[in-house]
Structure formats: C-alpha cells, structure tokens
Write the structure tokens for this entry.
Amino acid sequence: MKLYEYMGKDLFSSYGIAVPRGRMASTPGEAAAVAAEIGGEVVVKSQILSGKRGKGGGILFASSPGEAGEAAAKILGGTVQGLKVESVLVEEKIKIDRELYLSITVDGSAKKPVLIASASGGMDIEDVPDEEIIKYHIDPFVGLQPYAAREITRRIGLAGPPAGEMNRLLPVLYKVFREKDAELVEINPLVISGDRLIAADAKVTIDDDGLYRQKGFPRVEERTEAEQKAHALGLSYVQLEGNIAVMANGAGITMGTLDTLQHYGGSPANFLDAGGGTGMEETAKALEILLETNPRVILINIFGGITRCDDVANALVKVKKEREIPVPVVIRLVGTNEEIGVGILKENGFEAYRKMDEAAAKAVELANRH
Amino acid sequence: MKLYEYMGKDLFSSYGIAVPRGRMASTPGEAAAVAAEIGGEVVVKSQILSGKRGKGGGILFASSPGEAGEAAAKILGGTVQGLKVESVLVEEKIKIDRELYLSITVDGSAKKPVLIASASGGMDIEDVPDEEIIKYHIDPFVGLQPYAAREITRRIGLAGPPAGEMNRLLPVLYKVFREKDAELVEINPLVISGDRLIAADAKVTIDDDGLYRQKGFPRVEERTEAEQKAHALGLSYVQLEGNIAVMANGAGITMGTLDTLQHYGGSPANFLDAGGGTGMEETAKALEILLETNPRVILINIFGGITRCDDVANALVKVKKEREIPVPVVIRLVGTNEEIGVGILKENGFEAYRKMDEAAAKAVELANRH
Amino acid sequence: MAIIIDENTNVIVQGATGNQGRFHTRQMLAYGTRIVGGTSPGKGGQEVEGIRIYENVFAAMEDHRVDASCLFIPAPFARDAAFEAIEAGVKVVVIITEHIPVHDEMDIVNFARQKGATIIGPNTFGIVSSGKCKIGIPSNRFFVPGPVGVVARSGTLTYEIVANLTACGIGQTTVVGLGGDRVVGLSFVDVLQKFEKDPETKAVVMVGEIGGNQEEEASLFIKKMSKPVVAYIAGKSAPPGKRMGHAGAIIERGRGTYEGKVKALKEAGASVAALPFEVPDLVRERIGI
Amino acid sequence: MAIIIDENTNVIVQGATGNQGRFHTRQMLAYGTRIVGGTSPGKGGQEVEGIRIYENVFAAMEDHRVDASCLFIPAPFARDAAFEAIEAGVKVVVIITEHIPVHDEMDIVNFARQKGATIIGPNTFGIVSSGKCKIGIPSNRFFVPGPVGVVARSGTLTYEIVANLTACGIGQTTVVGLGGDRVVGLSFVDVLQKFEKDPETKAVVMVGEIGGNQEEEASLFIKKMSKPVVAYIAGKSAPPGKRMGHAGAIIERGRGTYEGKVKALKEAGASVAALPFEVPDLVRERIGI
C-alpha cells in the first residue's frame, strides 16, 4: 500500500526525521489558511501516488496565502500524470544547498533490506551512473548499526554537521522501514539546507501482507472499482484493453494464458488470477466480475490442483442458471476431479477443452467472428 | 548491582509480569498501613541483598494490620543472614498450588544468555538434579521467540492456562534481562496460583558496567565504606581478616600475592587491585586506604606495564612526606621505568625487591615479628 | 538420484490438523512421502490420517529423525513455525503459506542461512522428487520419474508444463517450486547448480516470469552448465507489475523485462519456448529423444 | 611459527589518537608490529607516530590488507567499533577496553562467530607472538622467542610468569590473554588446540583463576594433548567472588573452586604450580631442558 507524500512525512516526523513545515489541504481555502500559518514562500504539491509531479505541473510555488489558494485551485480536481488530484500538501519552501538521494527497500536477490544512497539526488536519480550509487545490505538480525551509518555517510562524501545529521538519520530510517513493515522508504530529494538534512519528499510503501499488524495507517486505495471487488474476494485482478475476458488459477498460468491469447491474435480484457484454492462461491463471483466488463468471449483456464474442477463446473452452472450469459464461454479444464467437472459441464451445454492452446485459439476465433 | 526484592518486583510489574500486591515499608506503622490497604493475610519480608531469608527468620506472616506491624517491628533494625534489615516488603499472601524455578543469566562458556527453568522450584532448587533442570541458550541477535517459549513450557511440563501464561511470560522476562543490562533475573519461586503465574520473589542483578546507560534505578550499595572509597578511585577492594595490607596491580597478580603470603604463613588484611593504569594520585589514595586498616605491614607488589614504577615510587614518597607511615612497607617493583622507580625509593629510604616471593617472605617475617 | 529430497526423506507436517494440512497430508501419503509426524500446538497425542501429532517440532524429533518439514501455517504464525523447524535442526523447510509479510520472509531466509537450512518458498507449491517424495500441494497424477529437472517461480503454470512433459512421455527427476514472493529461500541458480551435479538429470526446464533479475542471474550460470536448459518466461503480454519507486529501478537497472530475460537466456545457450506447450518439443530436441 | 598472529600480520589501531592508543601504537611499533594504520572518526588524514589515521576500518582497508585490529575505544563505543572491524573483514580483533557491558560482549562474540572472526578480550592485555608481533599493552622487554605457549585469563600475573620464564631462559612462541571478563572471545580450549597444532610450541603454560568452569573444560582437552601443560591457578586464598543467585550455582554445580580446578588439571596430566614463581622449574622438568 503506497502512502501519499503527506502521510509519509507525518510518519517520518513521528520518528523525529526533519520534514518541511506544512499540512495537507483539500480546498483552495484550506491551502491559503495553511500558507498563512506557515508564512513566507510556500510550495503547493499535488498528492498523487506517482512520482515526477514536478515535470507534470503538479508542484507550484506561491509567495502569499492568496497565491497558495490560487495554486491549489489550479491543481485540485485536475489530473497530474493521469491521476486525479484530491488533495495538496502546502509546506514551507526550504533553502536547498544540495540534493541527495536515500532509500531502503527489499533486495530480492540478496534477500535482505538494501539501503541505497547517492550524493546526486533529485529528479534524475535513475540516470545517475552505478558508481555514484551506494548500496548497503542490512542483516535483519543486526539492523543498521552506528558504524554502518558512519560508513555510508563517508561513502556519500558528507562532512561537517550534515554528516552528523546523516549518521543520526540512517538508523532511524531503517527503524521506520522495519517497524512499519515497509517495502520502500524513499527520500528524494533529501535536502542539505544549511547544517540540516530535510526530507523534501517521502515515498513510503507498506507491505500489503503486513497491513494486518500495522494499525494506525489510513487505508489508501489505488485500485479501480472492479479491482477492489476482485481483491475483496481474494482474487488478483487487473483491467486491460481487449475483448476476451480471462480467468485462470495462478499468476503464472494467467500470464501464460494471456501470452497464448496474444500469440493467436487475441486481445485480453483483463488479468484475473483466481488463486490456488478458490471455492465454488468465489469462482461464481469472479465470473460476475468478468461479465461486467462486457467482453465478446470468456476464456476460463483451470489447471486443478487445490482448485477442483467440479467446483469450477458447478460455479459456471450456477451463474448460468441465475442469469443469462450473453457471450460464449470457452473452458479449459484439467486436474483434480477433472472427469466429474467435464461431466457437469457437458450436462449443462458447455464444451470443455483439455489443451490450453486449443481453448485459446477457439476463444480468439469466437472474438474475431463478431 | 543487586536490586532489593521490592525493586525487582516493581521492575517486573512495569513489564506486566504478575507479582503479589504489596509495598515496601520502613517502619512498623507503614507496614500496618500497607497491610490494611491489602486486606486479609499478608507476608512481611525483610529486604536484604541475600537469599535464604525464610530459613533465617526474615519472612513472617500476619493476618491483620496489627500483626503485620508487630512482624515488621520484629524484623526491622535486626539482622538476617548477618545483614541489617532497613525495610520490609508487605504483600498479600498468595495461594500456592505449585512452585517453579525460572531465571535468565549470562553463560560465560556458551557466551550467550541462558534461561534456566525447573518444575521443582522453591528453596531447595540447588539440590534439584541436573536432569530436572532445563537450560535454553538464547542467541542475542534472535532473542527469545514464541516457539522457544512454547518449547521451554513443554519441557517444564506445563499444560492448560498456566502453560499459556508461561508462553507469555518467558519473552517478557528476556526483555527485562536484555533491556535493563541485567546479569541475572531470577524468580524463585514462580508460583502457580489457580490459573495464574505469580513471581513470588524477584532477584535482579544489573551489570555494573551497564549502569551508565541504565537511568531510573536507585543506586543500591552493597560495599563497605572502605570498599566504596576504593571503588570511587577505580580500585577493586575487599576487606579481609589478616594483618598484612596488600596492594598490587591486576586482579590475577593480587590473588597471586595473597596466595604467596599465605604460602609463607602470612595473613592478608585485604585484597586491593590497583588496576592496570593507575596514576600517581590514585596510588597515593590507595595507600591511604591501606593505612586506615591499621595493618602490621604493607606489601606493595607492582609489575609495571601500563602502571609505571616511577609513579608508584613517587606516590609512596608523597604519602610518606604528608603523613607518618607507622608500619614497615615492603615493596616489590619491576617493569616499566623500574630503574627510575627503584632509584627514587632508595633515595627516600625504602628498600625495593625484584622478586615477589622474597618480598612476600619479608612481609610475613615483619608481620610475625611483632 | 534426485535433488534436495528423495525416498529416504523423513517429513513432518507443521499445521497438520487444519483443513489444508489434513488434506495434503493424505495426498502426500498417497504419493508415497515418508511422513513421520505432524505438529499442532495443544493437540499433541492426537492422530491425523494415521500420523501422530506432536506439540512441536522438538517433540517430534525426540521420536524421529526429521529431514524436512512442510508448513501449512497461517501467515501471521509462519515466521515462528519456520524458526522452530530451523532451530530444531530440520534441513529442508517447505513453506506453502502465502501472504507472509516480506520482513518475516527476510528473517526466515537469513535465519536459515545462519543455521544451514534450505528454505523452499514461501508461497510455493513445494517440491516433488518424482516417484520418491512429494512435499507440497501439486496433484499426484502428473509427476512421474524421468530425466528432466524442473525449476519454477509459479505453481499452476508448472503443473501445466509438467503435465505437458508427462503427456509427451518425459518424466522428471525433481520439480522445485521456488515460490512466488519477492523474497524466497532458493534462486534459480541455487537449483540449477544442484541439477548440474545430479547424475540422473539430463536436462533442465526453467519456468520464469517477468520482473526481478533472477533469470538474468541464472543465465550467467547456464553459460557454464554442461546440461541443456529449456526456459519459458511468462508475462510477455502481462501488464507491468508494481515498481518500488526509484529504488526498484536502481536495483533492476533495466533488467526484468521479457525481452531482456529471453535475450540473456538465449545468449547463455538456453532454448526459450514462446508458449508453455512448446516446452516438451524443445526438451526432446535438446536431449535427442 | 606462532599462533593467531605472526610477522606478516598487518595491524590497525582503532582509537589511535587517544592517549592510550597513541602510547601503545608507539610501543607496538617499537616491538616490530606491522601497524598499517589507525582509525579515529573525524580525524581521517592525520598522522600518529608516523602512522596514517583513517576515518574508519573500511577506509583503512581500501589502502591496506588488514589482518588484525587493536581496540583502544571507550567502553560505551567498543561494541560498535568491534562490529565495524568484524564486518569490514578483520579476522583477529583484540579488545583491550575494560568495563564493556556484558550484553555488548555477548553481542560482539556472537557477531564474530557469525562472521568467522577471532575476538581476543575484551579486558585483555592482548597477544604477543614473541619477536614477531605484539598486539596489546604488555611492556616489550619480557617477551622473547622460545618454545613455550602461554595462555592466561589475567594480565599482570601473566607478565610476572612470562618474566620469570624469560629470566630462566625460557622464551615463548605466543602469549595469549583471554581477557578477564565473564564473556570473552576465546576459551582456554580454543587456544590449547592451536598450541597443540603449532610445531614450534613444545609446552604450554596456562594461567587460570578461581571461578567459572573454563579450567575444568580445558582439562578434558589436556587429557588428549600430546604436549605437556603447566598450570597455575590464582585465588587459592582469595575471598569468594560474587555469585549469580541460584542460577550461578546451577551452572557451576560445584565447579569453580581452587581445589576442583587443581584436581581436574592434575588428573588430566598437567603439572600445577602452587605459586607463580614455581612455573619455570615445572616447565623445565616437563620439556627436559
């Protein structure tokens, strides 16, 4: 779950990490009030779950409360990077002497947290050459110890008061990362402003699987309505542009199904992974979600392991009995209780394929026939 | 630093470990007041830094506030196990269904914390055979995890609600041990009272070397006045019964000096380890401490490493100049700046030996001459 | 021969009294897996499918040599259960559980490294040494002995490919599910190394996915392998996965795409199937059967 | 030959700019120790006794191979400094500092175990391979090459015994100070094993103390040694040390007394000196010089 910048900064602040003074606002009036409270020049930043807002016109400067209100009015309700802006963060404009980059994330290869830092921060961090990027892997049983912080600071090349600030910041940032089940904590830019280090941005992603033990976070929703509905059923769903609705069980086989469809010239309407052990009721609901996308064909590809073929067949029959299915359904069904499932389908007028490629080819043929 | 039982229980209580209701009292009146507050039967326990109070008459029972006051009057100001009692702990008398033993301490061989538990707790724990004692070593980087707690509980042989209580207690006790720089946390007996586990005693020792970062503990003083004085100078001092005052530099060589004295029939008045790098001023003060014990002879055994022989010699001369030294001083002096030191001593009428055995023999001879 | 587990592997099932645990204990027994016990706190002494239930792994090990463990433990308790198995001395720990927090996964994998244990998963279908031992959840019917080692990131896609192989008369030495999560115990390279050393394995099928850089790392090892590798990479047409801010980009540095993975594998000498059902033909081609 | 360190050992001094660090850097250089650098945060680039000071151990290792480190770091910072050396890859870490909290000592020793480093100390005088390398604080004059390995718990008593040996014409291969604290990196057994394997060491002198059960554990190994061992145990007449509640008694179970240690050592075939100055004669007797 991604956090909005203002939430990430609130989180940082609660750990004693310095952030610019400021507050979230949902209306131009609120924005002007926050600007008045801060005094002087302010920055008005659109709150969306994406980076590169600066280049997208999502960050404006203002030198009075009136200007701040106007800036907020320009941004609020509009879109930045294709995302609707519902709130802004109004904060003091800080003096920037230098911009650094700092983050901690999970390194799947090393199977450890990795701290990434660079003396060259700011918008173009992805173009900074590898030799200017510092990577430090953290043993989860040891944590980020003071000596490691000093070594990272040394490699960044800091000296004087900002070096001391960095030595203090690094273990705290790891603490946030660990205690909050974060997959990512990123500060870009981390600004040197006089003697101080200030987190001028905050990008925090909380591990969805860790949310059950992370109380006190507002729930941020990034999914479309259909995706939310699928998620509530324990299904993984992504909307796509095509006209063949797809349901399979397992992320890999769902991807394989899409690949096969495209191979035969078809165009998938969605990615729906029904998971490994979904029962009859969930399967029926998943079908409902597919139908709502108004596809030309539905392709169901089930390789039964934990999922039982008879459950899938019964679910299909149930949906058919409850409502009309206005488009053809192509089913591939093998695995656990395959014979029973195929029998149920036949009795109810569905044809079942044993081979994935044949089923995919058939679905493409039907979609293109219209 | 050992904590009094009531301090240990306050500490446990602050971590959510169940202890009997009660409070410390310094007068019979206070004891009666605490008993009245608790109601019903109470226990009045002398607060001394030693075990086996029960066998020594230091624990009395009372069934009314009046009786509690009388019990406190009996104990307060007296001695238990040779120690003066200045306070008592008055607490509810708990129902004892069973007594267990539980502690965590440092295992110098394994170089790890070790948790020790036994289903047979109570006063005679030291006589419980090894096979009824459970030892579990804790990796300091991993801590005491829930699975380990369950395994210990299983090996103790607990079932039902007390097993659940034990599973919760064990990681908390380790937390106390680790967070408070403890060398020992011991609960004996740990009482099963109905469904509950209650710490009926609390023995906690805080690592002296960790005290600098352990705020919030009252300082408990176990040393004699002379020992305190020596400790304030960074010296390690223990009072003994004999008549030859001894000073050496290093715990091992001080022990070796005592051994050698006894070998020649002498009797040491003290153990004074002046440490490895003590300067002139500290050495002079250490001499003052020795003189206060009114010995017959003083034996100084210095093998100079960090300690410089000239510093020791100068210290001796300084003391001699400032005050009369009423007893003979035998000095053994070798090592760093030996020649300078021996020169200074000779100039000032002291004789220096090079060999430890000769110096010890001389000291014994002088002590026995009187 | 086979890798990691074989007919002599003694297995316990952690969480054997739950629905999943019970069902798959029965399935594994039916496959011939030597299950010597199950665990379930508070249920020591019971029986499930004729298997004795113990309070914990330590208790089971008082009665049996235990070589491997299979976890059917809910995500919030999986870290503790895995630690228990590792500390008790179990050398192969198969974690079926999905949705384990990634910090717990890092803890598990690093604890296992310290103690010299092999973690399979989390979020895996498990591991099958065909005809000898199955630890995990795939259905029994498709796994038959033969000359091909299979290593995969995802489950059902692997069943698909294994079933295709079996249908074409190509059996498997061992089929390893690495697990679908970001942090898992084994990488492709770890398993390829074992297959390279296993005398019965004549070729390896590797089932990858877009994202991460495991397949690229595997390519470096494949270059040095004496045995042929056939790969399929899922996700040619998949929507882009979520990205971990700039940090993710810095770690991946352009790796992780379908095209990049296929290029790396082909340059390393692997055959790459465009679609899952092409795998058996490519295997035939490479081992000449 | 010698154990642990020799004439090729490259040493850095952590905390080289303090009084102690500076003094002993000079002394070690005078003994012939190959000191390649010192560390002191914030003082990188300075020089002490002609030795370059680095910001930290990592920086020193960019310029030099570093085999061993000697810590003159105040107790509150010793844990972190030791961790730094260990993680940087230093394989022998000598910790002179006394009064380090015991929990920090456990952390240091267990971290070193994970990383394969040897900790000498804390609260040790150090280690001397006579004529080759001295890491620590003993004065240079008494340590001359010869056939006897020395291992001890306490400092000054060791100087006493080494000086006696040297005065009698018996030099030393290596003299190891285990350290006086309850938790230290090496035990008597660890060092005895190394001396047993060292071809130049003909006999071992072991200087123990009352308390703990290290000497009893060493006795079990001495039984199997091919080389003679001469021991002295200090504290025959010492006041009893502080006891860790019942827990201490349960761990020691009657071991730890002077009589028990001497009995165990004698039964294992060691010669036991009643007083420190008897050691040289016993050594002569055992190696026939």
Notes: The two ends of chain D are 21 Å apart (CA to CA). Chain D touches chain A through eleven residues (CB under 8 Å). Chain D is about 35% helix and 25% strand.
